[in-house]
């Protein structure tokens, strides 16, 4: 019993730039039984990147063939290169009982939810717009114009919060990480749709 | 933002006798912001019992008036005394942002779910029937006949697991308690149906 043969779950983590989403995602990847999703891309491998580990590197033709047979949870074109999350690779991990994490923007997240409605959708929010502004300005890497653009983009993304199942307010990072871990634990304890196998085990005794 | 003004949730904890449900329930009651539900009863107060704290002590007429106006999440008659969980008292606590715990058998749990579909249903399972038998026998307080009856009752209760949302296998008590706490935390992070208030706060800034 327990979790040993249960299917894993896909956790989608989204949130505006500056909310600490990336940090939370990387902390969660350290958990047992947890994988990141390997993206497929048409861009050339950079030095040290390993096919099937960092990315699945494919030709444009191969990528489009995957699009055609509906094998992307989401995909997008960025600067002439295509990127996508292959459904079959994610499914293989889930079947082996692994949880899979996906750090993705809200638009991509909504594509994933449409392709895999059982995905667990988690939205990371800033404590306030003032704090979000502080954090973006604190980076010191972006112009004021870019920062204003990110802030208005944040509002637009947050308007789609209703499409997500859980929200985390990242005021204190440790608390936020603990809360996301609780969501992962709780999701693992949900009574599955097919519970007959659980009950029948006790009846056989 | 955060949890300060969010409504609390009702957590129903059920499971067969011998699963450690009671111990888990009492541990959870120690959590911040968590109340047990005060039952209403027609039985006489025992020495030291305080009205409104241990029970709401009422006459049979008052109890039946509550039944009539649909103010019980569940109720039952035990040895000529009536017991029930008053809905209005639970609602008052939830409105104040408190979580409310209810330790109740499966039949009662299903009544609660019918009366309050948003209740979070948690089922505590034994690691195996053999362990459940050991635990019941280890108590040394019940006859073999009673133990057999409890075991077959356990199977019957577990057949209703599908009506519950979460299941916890109480193999290790500390793990089981941590898992239930994770469920409470995760439920507190669910995007509420009415999320406009969350988003509008950011837009006002």
Task: Write structural notes for this entry.
Two copies of one chain form a homodimer. By secondary structure, the first copy, chain A, is of the alpha/beta class. Helix content of chain A is 42%, strand content 20%. Chain A is built from eight helices and nine strands. Chain A has a five-stranded parallel sheet with strand order 2-7-1-8-9, with helices on both faces. The first copy, chain A, has a four-stranded mixed sheet with strand order 4-3-6-5. In chain A, helix 5 packs antiparallel against helix 6 (144-158). Chain A is globular. Chain A binds chain B through residues 1-2, 123, 125, 127-130, 154-155, 158-159, 161-162, 164-169, 171, 178-179, 181-183, 185-187, 189-191, 195, 198-199, 201-203, 205, and chain B through 1-2, 123, 125, 127-130, 154-155, 158-159, 161-162, 164-169, 171, 178-179, 181-183, 185-187, 189-191, 195, 198-199, 201-203, 205.
The major beta sheet of chain A can be summarized as: 5 strands, parallel
Principal-axes geometry of chain A comes out as globular
Strand order of the largest sheet of chain A: 2-7-1-8-9
Mean pLDDT of chain A: 92
Order of helices and strands of chain A: EHEEEHEEHEHEHHEHH
Q: In terms of per-residue confidence, which ranges of chain A show pLDDT below 50 for 5 or more consecutive residues?
A: none
Largest interface summary: A-B, 39 and 39 residues
**Assembly level:** homodimer
Q: What structural category do the secondary elements of chain A indicate?
A: alpha/beta
Give the count of helical stretches of chain A: 8
The span between the termini of chain A is 13 Å
Proportion of helical residues of chain A: 40-55%
């Amino acid at each position: 019993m327990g979790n040993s043969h249960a299917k894993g779950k896909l956790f989608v983590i989204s949130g505006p730039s500056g909310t600490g989403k990336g940090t939370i995602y990387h902390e969660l990847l350290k958990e047992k039984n947890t994988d990141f999703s390997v993206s497929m891309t048409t861009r050339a491998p950079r030095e040290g990147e390993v096919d099937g580990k960092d990315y699945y590197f494919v030709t444009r033709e191969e990528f489009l063939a995957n699009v055609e047979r509906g094998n992307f949870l989401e995909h997008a074109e960025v600067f002439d290169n295509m990127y996508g999350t292959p459904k079959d690779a994610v499914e293989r991990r889930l079947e082996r009982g692994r949880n899979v994490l996906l750090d993705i923007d809200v638009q991509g997240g909504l594509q994933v939810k449409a392709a895999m409605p059982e995905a667990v959708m988690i939205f990371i929010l800033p404590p306030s717009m003032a704090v979000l502004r502080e954090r973006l300005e604190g980076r010191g890497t972006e112009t004021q114009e870019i920062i204003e653009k990110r802030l208005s983009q944040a509002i637009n993304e947050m308007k789609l919060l209703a499409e997500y199942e859980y929200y985390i307010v990242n005021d204190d990072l440790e608390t936020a990480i603990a809360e996301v871990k609780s969501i992962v634990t709780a999701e693992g304890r949900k009574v599955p749709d097919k519970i007959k196998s659980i009950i029948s085990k006790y009846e056989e005794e």
